[in-house]
Amino acid sequence: PLLASAHESSCIRLWSIQGNLMKELRPFSKHPSGPLTALCTDIFIKIILAGSKEGYIFRWNMASFLEDSRNRKNEVKEELCWRAHATEVVELLIEQERNVVVTASIDGSVRLWHAMTGYYFGYFGQARKFELSDTSRLILPSDVSNFHAIIKEESKHMEKKNVEYPLTLDRDK
Questions:
Q1: Fewer CB within 10 Å, N or C, the chain?
Q2: For the whole model, what pTM was predicted?
């Protein structure tokens, strides 16, 4: 069992059930991620998705890490980053059978994306039907002006030093 938490510092922390910090993930892209506001996994907990306050979606592959979390070579790899909304992402859902990601934002929109590529399928309430089989035709939401989904080959960002933050109550502060 594993617990995941998303933080305002734009990192995801993976915890053991005993409360030990196992891994800290940070988005690795040229665009600032900002505070993370939503988090979800697929049903097999191989993929983890995070949404940010700036409307970005980040996708990590956790398969090799979960096989043996003690082996340092088994990393959590960031695979994809794309702009899904112009405002804060408040909810994420991965639908395994259709291979889609559903995102919701504070702007009131709910959108559908291809889970592997970040291609936009449309929004709930649109007049046309969703065409889930065609990912070759690039369309964008009206508030996202350029497509910059980034498929990560190998994230080479520096590991953060492990710093302990003991929980202590200081009544004076």
A1: C
A2: 0.73
